Structures are given as C-alpha cells and as structure tokens.
Amino acid sequence: MLFNSYEFIFAFLPIVLAGFYALGRRSPTWAVRWLILASVFFYAWWRPFNLLILAPSILINLIVARTLRRLGDTPGRGTASAWLLAAGIGFNLAFLGYFKYRNFFLGSVNDALGTTFVLTHLILPLGISFVTFQKIAFLIDVHARRIEKFSIQDYCLFVLFFPQLIAGPIVHYRELMPQFRKATCRFDANDVSVALTLFFMGLFKKVVLADGIAPAVSAIYDQAANGATIALVPAWLAAIGFTLQIYFDFSGYSDMAIGAARFFGVRLPPNFDSPLRATNIIDFWLRWHMTLTRFLTAYVYNPLLLTLTRRRLAKGLPPVGGRRTTPGAFFNLLVFPTMLTMLLSGLWHGAGYLFVVWGGLHGAYLSINHAWRLFGPRVKPASRALAVAGTAAAFLLTFLSVTVAMVFFRSETWGAAERIVSGLTGAHGFTNSVLRARDAMVLGRWVVGLLFVALALPNTMRLLDRYEPALGIQPRPGETRLDVPVSWAPSPVWTVALAALAAVAIVRLSGPSEFLYWQF
Amino acid sequence: MAVPGRGMGASRPAVYIAFLLTTVAVAALYSIRADGAFACQANGYGPDRYLAYCNVDGYGEYDHGALWFDLEPKARTAARQADVVFLGNSRQQFAFSTSATADWFKAQSMPYYLLGFSENERYHFEEQVMHRIGVQPAAYVINVDGFFEESESVSASLVMHDDDARGRIDRKRVWQQLHQPVCTAAPAVCGRAYAIFRSRDTGAWKRAGVMSGGKKATSEDAAVEEERVDRQSTSARIMLGRLPVLPECTILTFVPTVDGRRATAAAIAEAVGRDFIAPSLDGLLTFDGSHLDEPSAERWSAAFFEEAGPRIAKCLAARPRASS
After folding, report:
1. In a domain, B7, yes or no
2. How do residues B29-77 score in pLDDT, each as one tens digit?
3. What Rg, from alpha-carbon coordinates, does chain A have?
4. Fewer beta carbons under 10 A from the terminal one: N or C of chain A?
C-alpha cells in the first residue's frame, strides 16, 4: 500500500488510528499489538505472498539477535559472537542478493563468459533494501551491546512499523523503541496537527510537484532510450527536471512517513534537508537521504576506514594528517573507502550497471571534494562580493555534478544515458524535434518553479522546527531570505493554506503516479 | 508543545484538524465525482456487463487488466467456451457488438466471444490473453487493421510488464461495486463522461455517452502500402501458424472506418493465404470519425455473416466434439 493512495488515506490510516487510540485508552500494550497487526496488513496488501518471504527472515534475525545477546552476556565468547554476527549479516545480504541481484549477477556472468544461465523474473519483496539494512543495523547494535533488552514484540514493531517500512527513513532500534515505551498511545491534538501537516505537505510534494513534472521528463528520457539524439536544451531540461522530480518524490514520501509516524506520537529521523542547496558534495550527502548516508557511514565507511588506518599504522605508514597527508594515505584511507561505499550505495539503489556508474561518480566527486579540503588553496576572499561569488560557483558546481550523475540514475539503458550526456555538452545542437517549443516552455516553467521551491523556500523540517517534526530537529536560523519569517503553527492562516495544499493533492491523487524509491 | 499566538496567528490544533479533515473529505468526493468512476454514467451496466472504460484520468482502462489478471472469471469462462473468437481493435468490437451478430450465433446455437481491445490493440497482447484464458474455438475472425504490427498498446504494456498493475486494475473493479448501485439509484449524482461496458457473456461492447469527433462517413484508401504488407504479413504468418485451427477457419476481415486501409488489409490476407471477407457497403457512418455507429454496425455485421456464416458453420461442424 502506498501513502499516496485512496485506500491508505481514507481507509487504512483512519481505521488504524481509531483502533490505536481506542485501545491506547485501555492498554498501551494492546495498542502496540494493534499497530503490529496493522503493519503486517499494510505490508501484505500489495502482495500477501511477500509476508511468506519476510516472516522467516524476521524469525531468523530474531534468533540470531537473541543468541548474540546471550553470547554478549557470557565472558570469553567474543569470537563466537563475532562469527554469529558475520553469519547474520551474511544471511541478510544473501537474502537481499537473491531477490535483488541474482539476475544482475547471472546476466553479468552471461555477458562476460558467454554462459546461458536462465534469468527468471523475481518480484522484489516490498521495501526489501530498507528492511534488510535495518535488520543488519539491529544485529550490529546487539553485538556491540548498544541494545541490551528486547522482546519479540519490540523486534516485530521495530522491523514492521508501517510508516518507515517500505521506503525509510532507515531507523535505529534505539531511536524508535524508547519512544514507544514512553508513548501514551492516546489522541494528542498537537501531535496529530503536526502529523497532518507533514503528511499533506509530503503528499503535495509527491503527487503535485514530482508527479507533475514526471511526464515531461519521462518523454525525453523515453526518446533517448528509443535512440533519438538529444540537443542541449532538452538534455538539460530533462536532467535538471529529473533531479527535481526525484528530490520532491522521495523527500515528499519521507515527509509522509515522518508524518504518519507522528500520528502515533513517534518521531522518525529526518531524511532530507534541502540537499539541492548544498555548496559541496560532502554537504550534499549530509542533506540527501540522510539516514542512508548515516547507515553507510556507520556500518561500511567507518569500519573500513578504521581497519585500513590500523593496518597502515601497524606498518609504520602515516595516516591522513591534514595538509601533510601523503598521496598513499589519501588514496588508501580516503579515496578507496569512499569509492567502495559509494559503489555499494549505487548497487543498493538498483541492480544495474547504471546505478553503479551513478555511485562511482559520487565516489569520485566526494574524493575530489576531500582532496580540495586537504590540498586546495586556503585563500580568504578579499571582499564580501567575492565570497558570495565563490559560494555561488560552489553551489553551481555541486548542483551540476549531482544533475549529471542523475542522468545515469534515471536512464533505462547505457545508450540513453550517453545520448543525454552528449546532449548536455551541446554535441547535437541547441534544440531539436525531441522537444517541441510548447513542451519546452511547459517543462521550463516546471523546472524554474521547482527550483524556486527547492532552493529558496523553507523545507518542511524548517517550517515545523518549533514542533520537533523529526528526531533532533530544533529551531535554527534560516538559510535563505524566505526561510526566516516563515514558521508553521496550527493557526487560522496555516489552516487555510494547508487545507488548500491538501485539497489540491487529494484531487491529484487519481492521476498517474510513479514512486521512484518504493522497491529499493 | 503548542506555541501560543494571537488573532490569525493563534494556535488552535483541534480547529486546525477538523477544518483540514473536512477539506480533505470534500476534495476526495469532488475528485471521485470529477475524475473517477463516478464521472461516468451507470446505464451501461447489466446483469452481465462491467465498466470496461471510463474516459477520465482517474479510471481510464479496466478491460485489458480485467481479462489479463482474470478479474472477471465469468468473462474468462465465456471466452474459453466460445466456438468463435473475434480478435482486433475497438473498431472490431463496435462493429460486431450488434443484434445481427447475437442473432446469427443464437440461430446456430454457437457461443462466441468478442476478444478485441481498445487502443488499437495488436496480436502480441491478444494472443497472450487467449493463451492465458485457454480459448479453444473452432474459428477465428480477425480484423486486419494494424493487428499484425509488432507493438503493444500502453494499457497492454502496463498489465504485461508492471508488477504493480494488478493492484491498480483490481481497485477499479472494487470501485465498480460502489459506482453501479450509487449511479443506478441516483444518476444525477454521477457524470456523463464517455464509457464502454463489456458483456461478460459475449464480450460485446455497449457505449454510454459520446466521444468527440462527430459522425463521419466511412471511406477507403485504395492504395496498397507495400511496406505495411511486408511487415505485417511476416508476423501474421507466424501468429496464424500458431492457431490450432484449419487455415480456412481463420477469417480475416476489415471493419470499415474513415480512410480505412482496406486494400492493404486485403493484400496482407492474400500474402498469408487466408480468406478475406469484408463486405463493402455504401452509406456507413462512424459515430466519432473512427467506429461504426449502431445502425451501420448492424448493417455491416449482418452482411458479414451472410458472406462468412457458411464458412464459420462449416468449421464448427468439422471440429471433433468431445463426448459428454
């Protein structure tokens, strides 16, 4: 079930909330059980067979986690615990690998070795990548004794809690469960008003903004996939258009998830923080799909960096040390872990070479950004105007780099990506028949409008920061001129404004929609 | 947690929630009426008919998925038991959805099924639908009107390749269960958008409302387009070769339309060595510049059965009957 569907908004959510609040008045335990049951129903709605796939995986993870906890309590069983953790992670990766990467792997083997392995169409269980990452993080946290106590009910709620089940934000057990332990499970007008605001702002971003620009963007990408050459203007409109589409699509869905959780009095971590305003690529990744960045940093990048640093130090080689960093240290301790992490990030997003290229490009961008920080000139701008110009140039370079990489993320084939990228360079003229003048105007207006919203207006977290809309969000100074005076409150002005946004979003619900992240 | 304020800035969460939810409910009702199944009238439903198409973005096409995903078991059973199956596009569907067709088959005591689809559907989808349903007719009637082109419609592509399509199509089935009683009991509540209903028993279509385009007389393009003939006859040979009936029991036809490529269709039939039966009648009209209107469809289909009827009856007689 998708958040942007009639059945979720008008049937599932009201029934679940009514049951949760009613049971919460009698017993929070029953309210939580009701929530688990509802989450199972939510997951099974799309394809009940998915439950048969997910249930054994949950059970095995639970057994591994409980054994890890017991081993953790027994002195001298560290090695056994480490092996069990490795087996648990291996199981989860194999689970993900079978459903998501089997055909990609066999196809690659067929391509490389001329073999004829049969590729069978496997339907990806809903949200498998998100669920798998959460289960892995849970096992690591239990092994590291960051989680001391948990019951079957706790674990099921953590894995299945429907607001974050299919597309994140990727949550840690220690973020989610303490909130449930403190939750009253009763109707709270403040929480519900914040929840409704987040949900409908997210819905608006998804079905009005992202789905609004999607057909015009897809038309150009489809033509590129069909072999058409793409000129400069359509190539840039398609590339920037898709960057905006995916931003509003996924950040809108994250807002809806955060809003849906808030109905239950739970705050999820933030997932987006106006990433397109970033002035360098490191900053971009601290603002884009923040919970994935956090996961990859904590569970892939940092352990790898730590291991490599220890090895270098054991060999008597220098670590990364500011401007005195040696090329060897830079490549071994920064470029290698960064590239590996981002290539994995690419593969996580999809089983295809183009996703790997997307990840590789970001790995390269990040490495260059690290190199600039370490070795670049450190000149203070002579005037404020020069500082502004420098920031503008940095923003532009970051935005264009992200946009070019997104071409590989969106393109269906390598040929299509090549045609769009060569269009971006102007190799096929200024404009051509791929995009008629009228359509170019329509898409151009969309791009300008969405750029304004993404770059100048306050984002949802900023608008609601007085109400801690997501974990750790606190009031802060605005980034843009329009950021500063605007702040949400359940006041008459905002009531009318939100009602208008919600009405438009509901009317647009029946239109065609593609959710880009829901099978990741 | 609430932040106090004054006047238009005062925080009133309960009022905020109530107003927002009311607006959402009103917007939803408006949306369903303007852009969902309720934009279409219900006067095409019958004991055996479902809403195959409603010309609004929020509903659109149900027909392709209904048969592909077996959401209409009665239709599947009827198609499977049909002695004669008609394949083709929407022009074929309207042309044979007539009393003349029903009467002719009734007189022969033969079940038939019109298995054509909208969006100029081609053989690739319809052949797979036949396979999924398990049709076993004694004869096929195929409207050679772009039917053997190597492509599929958008709706066909979605139901065949989109993993999420089944859920979306099934929701349209659920909406019908609400649309039929409400719009039958209170037609004024519902809109008048163009709709098509399909009979589960015979596959015949019934339209409600009108499409833009206006009445136009049928006409023919006398030129034979060799490129089309070459391209389509290649796929036609392959597809027709797979049909488990005698060659003379596959009748190719061409339903008249505006600027119809009848000569090209006849050339394709000749190239693949199949009979081409397509009566040429004067004074035929389309109701929208493409599909025969009801009087014209009656005349044309009656003429078709006059010519093709004996051949179809012979095919049925020649087929070995399973002993009961």
Report:
1. no
2. 888 888 888 888 888 898 899 999 998 888 889 999 999 999 999 999 9
3. 24
4. N
Cβ atoms within 10 Å of A452's Cβ, excluding its own: 11
CATH of the domain at B142: 3.40.50
Q: Does residue B124 belong to any structural domain of this protein?
A: yes
Boundaries of domain holding B154: 38-317
In order of A306, A311, A321, B269, the CA distances from A315 in angstroms are 14, 6, 16, 81
Q: Which of A157, A185, A144 is nearest to A17 (CA)?
A: A185
What residue ranges do the domains of chain A occupy? Answer: 6-186, 187-272+379-520, 278-369
Number of domains making up chain B: 1
Tokens of A231: 């000129």
B1 located within any domain? no
Torsion angles phi and psi, residue B252, rounded to 5: -95, 140
Residue B93 covered by a domain = yes
Q: Which of chain A's residues have a Cβ under 8 Å away from the Cβ of B18?
A: none
Q: Write out the residues of chain B at the interface with chain A, using a CB-CB cutoff of 8 A.
A: 1-3, 5, 8-17, 19-21, 23-24, 26-28, 30-32, 34-36, 57-59, 163-164, 167, 171
Q: In what order do the strands lie in the sheet containing B112-114?
A: B112-114, B84-87, B139-143, B250-253
Helical segments of A6-75, H only: 6, 13-26, 28-46, 49-73
Q: Cβ contact (<8 Å) for B8 and A491?
A: yes
pLDDT for the residue B7: 55
Tell me what pLDDT residue B223 has.
86
Among positive and negative, which fits the CA dihedral A463, A468, A473, A476? positive
**Does residue A4 contact residue A206 with C-beta atoms inside 8 Å?**
yes
ipTM, two decimals, is 0.79
